[in-house]
Amino acid sequence: MILPFMRRIHVLSCLALVSFLGADLVLAVQSDNPPKIYLTQLPFSPPPQPDYDPGEDATPAPEQLNEKEQKRLESLLPLLEGNQELWAIGEFVHFGKHSVPHLLKALKMTGPRIRFNATETLSMIKDPSAVPALVELALDPKEESKVRSHALRVATRLDPNQVIPAIEGMAKDPNSTIRNTAVFEARYVHRKEVLPIIIGVIPDPEQYVSITARDSFWILTRFSGSIHDWEISTPEKRKEWAKEWWAWLEENKDRFGGGAAPATPPESPANLNVN
Fold first, then answer.
1. Are 142 and 239 in the same domain?
2. How far apart are CA 169 and CA 197, in angstroms?
3. Which of 44, 140, 186, 263 is 20 to 30 A from 111, alpha carbon to alpha carbon?
4. Considering its fold, how many domains does the chain have in total?
């Protein structure tokens, strides 16, 4: 009972205040000498800034490693898997290019987690000399798909001109995840050699792989083909649609230095046994 009554009084008070102020405003506007309005700003003082000491710069990596430091890096390799893996990665990144030979050894060590973290560490160091080893890892059919995909991704970021053999081999892999990674990373390789590889994956038995190939080709060439319903398409329809891409590439091969399209299209992954 009391709460509704207080709310009603509060509403009536607000209405009365609005009516009072509104009446004064109307009278002021209708008068011959309306009051002047001046915009003012109250003085403002910014809050005091906190006092802090600047952090110390990290110790730079040595120009050359002595035997003790070489052994230390070698002993860090097993730590790329486990509770101290982030600390080990930081140590390798600190030594920079000196860590690359040791990380290349880690790419062949037992344990997919070690190989994955070694690949990630190489991406932080950004040394293109590691690309051939990463390409070899990406093409290894016995390797886990997660490690292979990450190896191709890092190799493409380091030097896209060296990954064309990996993209070509992985585009024909029985694993659809690997094929999808290959045509996705192909969009970062601005070379004419990747265009026939991408077209060869358009009739892929997996829709999402085929759509990725179509999008990668559009990113590189701005050619998207005719309007097709890819969501309900079949490998047979996509194989027929791929002829548009081959025809376009044949007509525009001079834009890429000539000879971009092969005489006969490569075999489609649709003929492969997919896991």
1. no
2. 9
3. 186
4. 2
